[in-house]
Fold this protein.
Amino acid sequence: LAASVMAVTSCQDMFEIESNRVVYQEQHQLGSTADSVYTTLGILHNMQKIADRLIVLGEVRGDLLDVTSITKTSLRNIAEFNFEDENEYLQVKDYYNIINNCNYALAYMDTTLTHNGDRVMQDEYVAILGIRAWTYLQLGINHAKVPYVTEPITKVAEAEKDYPMLTIEELAFELIPQLMPYIDYPMPDWKTLKIGSLEIKSEKLFVPIRLLIGDLYLWLGDYANAYNTYVNYLTTNKDYSFNTESGEQIWGLMSFNGAQVETTRMATTTIPTSAWDDYSATTGFATGREHIAAIPMQTSSEQGTVSELKNLFISEEGAPQLAPSNLWEELSKEQNYYIATKDKNNKITVSLVPNAGDQRYKNYTQTLDENKGLTVATKHFTGLTYTVSNGEYSNVEALPNTHILLYRRAWAYLRAAEAANAIAAQFNDANYCIKAFNILKDAFNFFFPNGHDEVDELRDKVLGVHARGCGDVAYDTTTYVMTPAAIYKQLDLSQDIELTLVDSIRYVEELIIDELALEMALEGTRFGDLVRFAKRNNDPTIVAERIATRKGSNNRDEELYQKLMNQDNWYLPLK
């Protein structure tokens, strides 16, 4: 830790900056605007070192990926929850390197410095405060307890002190008050930032404070504050806005296509294929409104830090080290895809597309060879090309992604649904259970519970998250509904049992857990999501059952199941 302080000055391999706010001065105590900008960039540079681990630790321990015959030992050990051996993915020093540099910057940055009446370092100060809190959140998710350090460590003796060891709940309790004064503070605006050929808005490099506070509330178990924090972001943030026919401006909601509304959905009988462009394309970080924050990565090692995830999800022979799990495929195939059509009298007819399943799985994966069972997950690389000769794959090439996502709009929707349903369970409140369900199925009913004069125009611009993979689910009256029959089926209950509100809440919770898999697959959150639900319900089977059945719901790894029934085995050691 002592050696890590301010080892962040070599930033030019990461960004080229054009900013009229940078004023170069010969000062060394973080007392100039140049100091604040380059210190912040240095911290972002260090975040690149842990970017791949967000995905590896969050997904390899989850239920949506499985190892293969060529998986390297370090990944296989993580998947099997064997943490005794040395492992390049389990080093916490890189996380504390970020924290220590944040501590140094927060301690020595001169936030009183003004220019034209503006406190020119305040933006960077708040951004760094958010990065430190976010880094502690990642440590808390992965470890049972972690050292909590808020002062910069510059000497060996300081590093050897005994620091408080905090759980994730205790971390949240400490961090929320630090962040609350800046809940809506703007992130640094450095004009133009370039990553390779991409030009990026600088605010997308930083953790949004309001959403980070929402996450901390969620882990703390303060569900009312978590829910209000997420909903406030969704209804006031202008990432997505439109005007109705009457001229009313509505912003902050989520359409089927993020920034672009799919206008032909009510007139087509085929599944739209461009529905995911805005939030899954690699250019989304630069231009897409779905993407809120991310860690940027280079596409060439000559330019800087390159993500190595591509090499885990595709090899030169095509076969991956980490493959989509059978359980993920099963879950996707179980979903129903609906198309709604209107006749000349505006009568709506809803049709089930046979065997379509959830379309996100088909967008997030690619089958190279059905006979060999060769399917690869494509979220972390682009531009896949290959040659096939006599059934053998060669010349397989792909580009690594230019970013690792930290937040996007769908996360906020699903977190809001989770918080709402937790409130329903906490206070036995059916209204919040319905709110949670509407976020999944029909967000129009969530945002406009009393209806709206322009319902026909708005409904297809304000859809539930499930519509992203399953079409016009808002019009489905048979399967994705809160009826006794649906609840009995989802929860595998006998119809001799009289249903209660508790069953309805549990039904919606299962839908949320599934939707987190369908929508947020391989974005680094899966294991933490399962742990959070398991802890809330005091039910380790939520973690154990799903992860132990990666190879299929009827193919449970009993040894892994028993290991995961012990919550102590969920957490990584401090190395």
In short: The chain has 23 helices and 19 strands.
